[in-house]
Write a structure and sequence with these properties.
Layout (H helix, E strand, L loop, with lengths): L2 E3 L4 E3 L2 E8 L3 H10 L7 E2 L2 E5 H9 L3 E2 L2 H11 L5 H4 L21 H6 L12
Length: 126
């Protein structure tokens, strides 16, 4: 079992964070995290984010402390590294249309002019 942890140096949410990774497999990483009580929601594509308060406990449970650089290099060599560009959600370049089935939609622009400026009746009949 090779689960690695880097020093807690990443600031966020009023604490410092470490990364917990495996250079063997995601199954190994998830098994270790589950046994140590790290919630699955802390998993971020290829690592778990863990707060400084859990660092000593995770080392005692068997995580090997390494530098941040060593952690990244070993993760890359293992083939388990997810590049930052692949973590970002793909954006649809087409504009999104805000459609809500129960919203009172009033005609805009030319549609409103063609209807003589009349308002569309609300679906509730008022």
């Amino acid at each position: 079992m090779t689960v690695l942890i880097d020093p807690p140096t990443w600031p966020a949410h009023d604490t410092l964070w470490s990364h917990l990774v495996s250079d063997e497999s995601y199954d190994e990483l998830h098994a270790f995290a589950s046994a140590a009580g790290v919630p699955r929601r802390a998993f971020d594509h290829d690592h778990y984010d863990v707060p400084i308060a859990r660092y000593d406990e995770l080392v005692a449970a068997g995580a090997t402390p390494v530098t941040g650089r060593d952690l990244v290099l070993r993760l890359i060599r293992s083939g388990l590294r997810v590049a930052q560009r692949d973590k970002r959600p793909q954006r649809d370049v087409r504009p999104q249309r805000d459609v809500h089935p129960q919203r009172d939609v009033r005609p805009q622009g030319e549609d409103r002019l063609r209807r003589g400026g009349q308002r569309r009746r609300d679906v509730r009949g008022s």
